[in-house]
Amino acid sequence: MYKSSLALAVAVGVLAAQANAEGFLDDSKATLKLRNFYINSDNRDSATAAQRAANQSYQSEWGQAFQLDFQSGYTQGTVGFGIDALALLGVNLDSSTGKHGNPTGANDGGIVFPSEGNHAVDEFSSLGLTAKAKISKTELKLGTLLPKNPVIQYNDGRLVPQTFQGGQITSAEIKDLTLTAGQVEEAKGRNSSNNENLSIAGANGSGNSNSTTGARSNKFIYAGADYKLTKDLLVQYYYGGLKDFYNQHFLGLVHNWAIGPGVLKSDLRYFHSSDDGANGHDSRYYTSGYYGGTTTKGKVDNDLYSGLFLYTVAGHTFGGGYQVSSGDSDFPWLNQGDGSSNYTITDMQIQKFGRAGEHTWQVRYSYDFAQVGLPGATAGLVYLKGDDINTTTTSSASEWERDLTLAYVVPEGKLKGLGVMWKNAMWRDNIPNTRQQDENRVIVSYSIPLL
Q1: Neighbour-count burial of 412, counting CB atoms closer than 10 A to its CB (0-12 exposed, 13-18 middle, 19+ buried)
Q2: What's phi and psi for 2, nearest 5 deg?
Q3: Model confidence over 424-441: pLDDT tens digits?
Q4: Helix and strand element counts for the chain (H, E)
Q5: Of 224, 319, 303, which Cα lies nearest the Cα of 266?
Q6: What pTM value is reported for the model?
Q7: Long-range contacts of 54-60 (CB under 8 A, 24+ apart)
Q8: Does residue 4 sit in helix, strand or coil?
Q9: DSSP secondary structure string, 345-408?
Q10: Do 421 and 36 form a contact (C-beta atoms < 8 A)?
């Protein structure tokens, strides 16, 4: 982290001397984003008594977030300099020890808020700064990042977004080709004010960054290319590697095809993941999966194949997909245990559907009510069923999830941009030592441009 901090300090110093340069302020943007977030989660009794004691059956929290997003322009010259700032504040509107989601105080946070012992804090905040430089169509960023590509995805599923610390360079010098490379060293969870080192499922100490039972790394490197072969065909290759945990290669293809009155979107993805360093021999670095007998942790060994097909016509979108997870381990991704996302077609509201041996099919439907004179209103439904999950008792365990989303964004007038969303999910399974779950989220959001 020392090198990134030093580079950030140098860049900020340069900007201090050039802050009045043309373009830096003229092209700056500032937005205050407001998010009111409520969630309740009903964890049903299909686990052991010890698991029920450690994870409350009913969890519920409500909060208000304030997110100030400042993005400067660039100073003039061959090399332009700028700086971005991301200020986050989460205020607790309703919580209790019985509903916080951290009954023993063993984790750093609960379902939404950080913890003080076994109860939620009244508020939490953080400030992220990002220095940036640009030459032609190549941009370098150092500091707080919100990366979103096939091998690293920030999570924005709670009150405030997850952020990463590191550096990233993006180049679009060649027509239709975008190159990306970066390194991150720490992450700040969506229910935290503190940065922590990186890990994966099975080794992350169950969401506690101070845990002595897990293992961490401070180096995740990634690089990739997005190339548009035609205006309707995108091909992708990315590499991601977490030191002492795993190496991952990704190949992707996205194609849009006008068929009749609508468009068919085909999205094909393949991940190959293998062990790296300590993950191959040190049990503290092992990931989750099934390795024969009663062994549920070991080295990373996973191939994930998937295809998702969506046909959109007259406001309707019909979709279906299939995914296969093969190998001894579950699909690996950056997962510190306090909320994370990955780039799979099965990353749903509750589950990820990437367990060892799992075969998952899904169907989707969504509708845009602008087609019937109600612009801004949308609805969506997804159903997934995963089978052939390998466990210590069977090779045919299964799970399913149903997600429903209703949303409305005011399209015009004084309240233009005000959004209201309800997300409801139901998850059921017969996997040993797991709890079935129902969940509701209600989100009200509004953005106020300041610059």
Answers
A1: exposed
A2: -60, -45
A3: 999 999 998 888 999 999
A4: 2, 25
A5: 319
A6: 0.92
A7: 54/103, 54/104, 54/106, 55/101, 55/103, 55/435, 56/98, 56/99, 56/100, 56/101, 56/103, 58/98, 58/99, 59/99, 59/100, 59/101, 59/110, 59/111, 60/94, 60/95, 60/99, 60/111
A8: helix
A9: TT--SS-----TT-EEEEEEEEEEGGGGT-TTEEEEEEEEEEEEE--SS-S-EEEEEEEEEEEE
A10: no
Counting Cα atoms < 13 Å in the Cβ hemisphere of 2 gives 0
Q: Give the tens place of pLDDT for each residue, 349-388.
A: 999 999 999 999 999 999 999 999 999 999 999 999 999 9
**Which two structure tokens, joined as six digits, stand for 412?**
């015009």
| Contacts with 226 (C-beta within 8 Å, 6 or more apart), sequence order | 177, 178, 180, 234, 235, 236
**pLDDT tens column, 140-173:** 999 999 999 999 999 999 999 999 999 999 999 9
**Which CA distances in Å does 412 have to 376, 418, 444, 448?**
9, 9, 17, 14
CA 291, 296, 299: angle at the middle one, nearest 5? 60
Cβ–Cβ under 8 Å, residues 206 and 215: no
| Helical ranges in 31-169 per DSSP H | 49-54
Contact call for residues 442 and 424 (beta carbons, < 8 A): no
Residue where the block lists tokens 């009045």? 20
Helix H segments across 116-161?
none
SS3 of the chain: helix, strand, coil, percent, to 5: 10, 55, 40
Q: What is the three-class DSSP state of 168?
A: strand
Instruction: Kindly state the average pLDDT of the residues 404-410.
Output: 98
Strand, helix or coil at 317? strand
Dihedral, CA atoms, 55, 102, 341, 206, nearest 10 degrees?
Answer: -80
- For residue 253, the Cα-to-chain-centroid distance in whole angstroms is 21
